[in-house]
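The protein record minuted underneath.
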Amino acid sequence: EQLPSESTIKKADEIINDDFYGTLPYFIEIDTGGEGRVLETETLQIINDIHTLMNNDSIVGYSYSLLTVLMQLSYYFEGDRTLLLNDDSMGNFISEQYLLYYSSSVDPLEYESLVNASYRVFSIKGLLYYKNVDTLTEFYSLIDRISSSLPEEWTIKVHGMVNELKAEELSLRKNWIFSF
């Protein structure tokens, strides 16, 4: 913005930002406010809604959670990915059995990164298409939309590299303001 739009540097920067970009991992932790709530059909439906919001946003390249695992296992065993999203009295039991099966086949750290032992806290992780600092603004706008759609007692936290970059951006903006 300080360089003329005709400058070689400005043109190269635009090409790189328009045509090439990287990925940025994110890790979102959501606390449902109560033990065992992650396994409830209503919670799984909310997680599905979160995934829908994320997958419909152009900056999100990939999102993964315990629901992703449960839906894949449901498809494998029952032939129906959405079975656990339907109001079924056996839903909690089946979800717990699927998670037990999954936990025996993956690294314990991978399993624990998806859901805590009390089934109160779960995570969604994935990758963003990172072009520039505006990606962070768009991502946190998405987080705000997700947060406003959650039940009142739920909380959401962002961890990892995306959070560190946001803190760095805020620090740089503050330094920029104070330098003038």
Residues 161-178 form the longest helix (18 residues). The mean pLDDT is 88. The chain is about 55% helix and 15% strand. The beta strands are 22-31, 60-65, 121-130, 155-159.
